Amino acid sequence: MQQFAFLPEENKMPEVTTSLDPLRIRSWAIAAMLRGLVFATIAINAISAFAADLQTAEADYRAGKYAETETLAAAEVESGIWNERWPRLLIQTQLDQGKYAEALATYEAAIRRYPTSLTLRRLGIESLQMNDLAKRAAEEEERFFQILQSSPMRYASNENLIAAGRYFADQGEDARQILEMFYDRVSQSDPDFIEAYIATAELALQKGDFKVAAETITTAEKIDATDARTAYLLARSLEPSDSKAAMMAIERALKRNPNHIPSLLFLVEAALDRELYDAAESELQKVLTLNPLHHDAWSFRAVIAHLQGDPKKEKEYRQKALSTWKTNPRVDYLIGKKLSEKYRFAEGAEYQKNALKLDARHHAARFQLAQDLLRLGNDEAGWDLAHKVADEDPYNVVAHNLVTLHDHVKEFSVLKTDDIHVRMDAREALIYGEEVMELLSEAKQILCKKYDVHPNAPIVVEIFPEQSDFAIRTFGLPGGAGYLGVCFGRVITANSPASQGERPSNWKSVLWHEFCHVVTLEKTKNRMPRWLSEGISVYEERQRDRSWGERMTPRYREMILSDDLSPVSGLSAAFLNPPSPMHLQFAYYESSLVVEYLIEKHGIESLKEMLNSLSDGLSIEDAITKSIGSIEKLDADFAKHARQIANDFAPKADWSREELPERATSDQWGDWVEEHPTNAWGLTALAQSLVAKKNFADARTHLEKLDELDALTGERNGPLELLANVYAELDEPQLEEATHERIIAQSSDAIFSLDRLSEIALNNEQWENVVEYTKRALAIQPLLPWGHERLAEALIKLNKFDQAISPRTALLQFDPVDRAGAHYDLAFTLFESNEFDQAKRHCLIALEEAPRFRAAHRLLLQITERNP
Questions:
Q1: H or E segment at 485?
Q2: CB proximity list for 550: less than 8 A, separation 6 or greater
Q3: Per residue, what are the HEC states of 505-535?
């Protein structure tokens, strides 16, 4: 039986059975060992002043002068200088340059001289692994712990405590204990010891806690703003929430050290995400010049080869990545992770399975596999694996969020029809679940037939009433504001209108858009660039309903005629790190214009041929060339086409922004517009300022001038909505109604216009119009009591009792003040639809709520007479 030498008898370790992994240390072992560390005097952390040449060498290393550092460190090691830092520095420079055999030789010589150095032993473990000596590396890990447990007092220096913490992190131990017992202990005793902050940030990033990582590195940057590692780790912590700030941090890192390999690999990933493979290859070449054997660099090359449809190269590069460590699980994990980020979930899952064959304890691969399975619709296996990861790694923020969400999702209603499975909030399912199923069935019938697709597995749609739940299911973390829905292939996640405030997007157009992704991703086996996938979906929105999808606006006109218009070959990059939300929306619009152009110019069959080529593994450039001609020609032809569309929009208007006044008053705008009577920007600004002053008559004049110039558009809070409000204020009901009609013809989410139009129609007893407007309003926000009330009333007036059942059923979900009346109304509707059993049920509920409800008694008698 093992025991810690310094512990009293009652703190002996329990017997260890052969079924336990000897390398895995349980939390009781860490706690027991650290009780001994408490008695160690932290004062031994005091470090004597370094020699000037060591400071110079370390500064050169931090600046990326690896060869110079290696030469200087090697000379000092060979001279026999008694300072452990020299061999450590030498090993690190050799590892960074891929000189793995030399690093191992240096380590083997150094460890004989410094056998108790935990920091040195960690470098030794890496050196052994990189020389494909996995068995010896495992033995060295075991020796590491044996030394640590033999007498912790001897190893209580700052550096060794950090090394011990990293060791336990590698073993998958509890992150909170590692933080509290190692990293926090060091930073508290020596607040300027930067390695403690770096190790803390690394651990936080590993567990998906980006906030802690960012806060920790911000503190570290105040201590030392010369280390490239801190800027790099800050970039990693900011990447999910602020990609622009992350890239700025990487620029700082590379300014400090132009040869910082993790930062160069960050740029590789950024280029890969934008489908800029030449740029990625350029950065990879820099890495491989520094370290020709770097496993991450070769893994990324394998990813590029896969995405470019070259399986032979993919296999060759993967083997190269494993050439120095054949059982390195990170290689397959990294390849699979990047493929999954490109929506190649099936391929990604296979790589994670390979990684787990090499190391069943690789937590990152296990959790990535869980996410892949969930996105492939393999819910049972995916959720089971996610729960196991969360149980074994309670500090994994993403896993914790996901399994917490699972407990909530299990309470959702499940609707099934025609191989479409929808999960949604039970209350919302009762209100508009039936319409969701009808829309998705229609989308499947139309879009699958159009693109010759026959899904061979169920399509899963999950609709979340809480935006945070949607974000966690989709991205793993809260955030993702602006996303309405995401399609992973056969799995769609979407925000319900309940999560979007008073003016939500049209849920029908969102689901149609996402289902189109299902079709095109199925057709191409998820092998399509983002611009093409989004472009087809937006295009198909407009085909289904002309008010859906993106359309030309004054701002889009301006962007097309500026440098904001992306070439087709670079359109996917426009979706990543856009300068503003407007630029992202423009990317959707431009992509749809490209698809529209391709179909009008070359026909739908050419587009489908392109998708078939992508399915066969061709790159987008080769698929375009095969179907319609060179990508360069498409870039030029489309740019000309798009600019023609822009120039054709309101051609009589002056769109110049030159000399536009800044922060002008309405009087100043009036003077300026007199000199520029057709300037659309000036007319709009003047009208807005006049409306703010409640000068509706003059505002009308300028808005109608915009209308004469064909410059009025129906976007949210745009000039057409302003004109409708002006007509309402001026008591011009016919003009107001006509303007609202124009708005809903151009906008898919004009809820206020539909409210007003249905109100006007209701007052005029135009029941068919009431039905039309309320149905369109409920397609935007189905949780509107007034929408269901007006719809039910209009349908009953039209003697369409069977159709009125649905809105009157929905009204019961809104906690009506008069519950008896609501049940009576539904009972009456059911009775007129010959649904006698259900009519009787709701009539009895009404009487239970209000026993003296005479109309309900009379209805109950009628029901009994008709259905004894």
A1: strand 485-487
A2: 538, 556, 585, 588, 589, 592
A3: CCHHHHHHHHHHHHHHHHHHCCCCCHHHHHH
Count the Cβ atoms, other than its own, within 10 Å of residue 423. 19
CB 100 within 8 A of CB 293: yes
At residue 617's C-alpha, the angle toward residues 615 and 622, to 5°, is 100
**Contact call for residues 696 and 726 (beta carbons, < 8 A):** yes
Collapsing DSSP to helix, strand or coil, 818 comes out as coil
Token readout for 527 is: 């092998």
Residue 129 in contact with residue 166, Cβ under 8 Å? no
Smallest CA-to-CA distance from 754 within 784, 774, 782, 726 is with: 774
DSSP run (H or E) holding 374: helix 363-375
Q: Which residues pair with 414 in a beta bridge?
A: 423
C-alpha span between 263 and 247 (Å, rounded):
10
Q: Which two tokens stand for residue 597?
A: 């152009």
Instruction: Report the number of secondary-structure helices (H) and strands (E) in the chain.
Output: 44, 5
Residues 159 and 279: their CA atoms lie apart, in Å, by 38
Is 350 strand, coil or helix? helix
Burial class of residue 623, CB neighbours in 10 A (0-12, 13-18, 19+): buried
SS3 state of residue 813:
helix
DSSP code string of 193-222: -HHHHHHHHHHHHHTT-HHHHHHHHHHHHH
**Collapsing DSSP states into helix, strand and coil, what is residue 420?**
strand
For residue 13, the 8-state DSSP code is: P
422: left (phi over 0), alpha (psi -120 to 50) or beta: beta
Separation of alpha carbons 178 and 163, rounded Å? 11
Longest dimension (CA), the chain: 111
Looking at residue 232, its pLDDT comes to 97
| Token representation of residue 21 | 């992994």
Nearby residues of 357 by Cβ (< 8 Å), 6 or more positions away: none
Query: Three-state SS for 718?
Result: coil
Q: For the chain, which residues score pLDDT lower than 50?
A: 1-50
pLDDT given for residue 456 in this prediction: 82
Question: Which residues are bridge partners to 420 per DSSP?
Answer: 417, 459
DSSP state of 422: E
With tokens 């936080």, the residue in question is 204
CB atoms within 10 A of CB 708: 11
Instruction: Tell me the C-alpha distance between 110 and 95, whole Å.
Output: 15
CB 203 within 8 A of CB 182: no
Residues making up the chain, counted from first to last: 868
Give me the residue label for tokens 């899952």: 349
**How many angstroms separate the CA atoms of 369 and 595, rounded?**
34
Q: What is the pLDDT of residue 480?
A: 64
> 309 in the Ramachandran plot: left (φ > 0), alpha (ψ -120 to 50) or beta?
left
The three-class DSSP label of residue 410 is coil
> Bridge-partner residues for 417, per DSSP?
420
- Identify any residues that bridge with 594 across adjacent strands, giving them in sequence order: none
**β-sheet bridge partners, residue 424:** 413, 463
Q: What sign results for the dihedral spanned by CA atoms 181, 184, 187, 189? A: negative
The single-letter DSSP state of residue 851 is: T
Distance between the two ends of the chain, CA-based, in angstroms? 82
Distance CA 176, CA 193 (A): 20
Nearest CA-CA partner of 294 in 100, 98, 103, 70: 98
Q: Note if the pTM is more than 0.85.
A: no
Closest C-alpha to 475, from 401, 564, 382 = 401
Residue that is written with structure tokens 């359109």 in the block: 571
CA distance 604 to 596: 10
Output b/e per residue, 624-639; b: 16+ Cβ within 10 A. Answer: bbebbeebeebbeebe
Apex 638 CA angle, 632 and 643, nearest 5:
135
Q: Residue 551 has which token pair? A: 């359309």
Between CA 26 and CA 866 the distance in angstroms is 73
